Amino acid sequence: MTLRVVFAGTPEFAETALAAIHAAGFEVPLVLTQPDRPAGRGMKLHASPVKQFALAHGLPVAQPPSLKRTGKYPEQAAEALAQLRQAHADVMVVAAYGLLLPQEVLDIPRYGCLNIHASLLPRWRGAAPIHRAIEAGDHETGITIMQMDAGLDTGAMVSVARESIGSDDTTATLHDRLASLGARQIVSALAQLARDGGLPATPQPADGVTYAAKISKDEAVLDWTRSARELVCQIRAFDPFPGATTELHDTTLKVWGAQIVDEPVPRAVAGTVLSVGPQGVVIACGAADAAQAVRVTHWQKPGGKRLSTRDFLQGFSIQPGERLGAARSA
Which of 118, 130, 207, 280 could bond to 295 as cystine, CB 3.0-4.6 Å? Predict the structure, then answer.
């Protein structure tokens, strides 16, 4: 059986999957992606990575702001729903699309809608599973191919592939591996669907449910009263967006790399600079009765580039005894 696959997705994670589906020879009669957004210094409209790929390969594109007839954009939703029906899809593949799919949409394709979700469901349902897995200090994550239902990432699981999270992984590095893994998993699932005319699916476990809320910029500020482990995980999780921040000399600095200091350190007020060297700036952290520290290895000042501590200190002074950021009260 030859499958007609409608694809819905927006960022690079989704583009990787669309490229794999296209390369595998599946017919793609329609691609849905978010409307163009302003970006960059000039705030010019930019097409999503999925749209750019689709146009480059001659695939039809629709960009409705909503798919809900009862929402803010009923006319655009109705038009998109008509396009979906005219595509005569056997299945829809959804990856980081960014719009909620009402039941009407889920019912249109012959075999429903398959979602490529970047976690081991039911852990980290929601918008930011890669960020939240690293932030929580998880040692493992993966890709779940899910048969979509009306809930938030609650559908039955078609397949699961696991991926280790390294101690130096950031959201950027883990994202790229999971994007490739997801692309391979969905192509395999589609091949099985084309061969067998169906996919076995297992309901998600009732236990272990967590939610990965969307990342907001106000989460970026480092609270030096947190433990060294929590701070390092936060810094890794917020790379590349939104970037962890701290204050020094009335300047907001981004912190792009840090390590837990294993050797003994003196007790000091959280945020106090304990030592400064070319390999990093050692900063006290944790509760008042703990002697913990992190070594910050990469920084960025406003308008500047991401730099190693060695290079950063050539243009920005940090001295032992100074205190970074007013730590938030517990």
Answer: 280
Domain spanning 5-212: which CATH class is it, in words?
Answer: alpha beta
All structural domains of the chain with their residue ranges:
5-212, 217-312
pLDDT digits (tens, 9 = 90+) for 67-94: 999 989 999 999 999 999 999 999 999 9
State pLDDT tens for residues 108-152: 999 999 999 999 999 999 999 999 999 999 999 999 999 999 999
> Cα(286)–Cα(330) distance, rounded to whole angstroms?
11
Assess if CATH 3.10.25.10 describes domain 217-312.
yes
User: In this structure, which long-range contacts are made by residues 195-203, counting pairs with CB atoms below 8 Å and at least 24 apart in sequence?
Assistant: 195/1, 197/1, 198/111, 199/111, 199/114, 199/147, 199/158, 200/158, 201/147, 201/155, 201/156, 201/157, 201/158, 202/156, 202/157, 203/156, 203/157
Q: Is 119 annotated as a binding residue?
A: yes
Q: What is the pLDDT of residue 284?
A: 96
Q: Is 84 annotated as a binding residue?
A: no
317 annotated as ligand-binding: no
